[in-house]
Amino acid sequence: MSDLAHSEIYQVLVRRKPDDELRLIGSVHAPTRELAMLYATWTYDEETWAELQVVRRESSRAAAFAIDPQAGAEKGVVS
Amino acid sequence: MSTASDEELTPAVVRLVATLVAAKRRLARHYLEWCVRGPVLEASTAVSAMAQEEYGQARVLAGLLDEEGLQTGLSLPAPVLQPAPCWISLICLAALFDTAVTEALAAAARYSPSLARRVAKILQEESFHQLFAQQWLQLLGQEAALRPRLLQQVEQLRTPLLSWLEQLDQLLSKAVPARANCSRAAAAWQQGVTDWLRQLAPGDAAPGSHILPEGGS
Question: Mutate which of B31, B35, B41, B42 to test chain A, going by most A C-beta atoms within 10 A?
Answer without folding.
Answer: B42
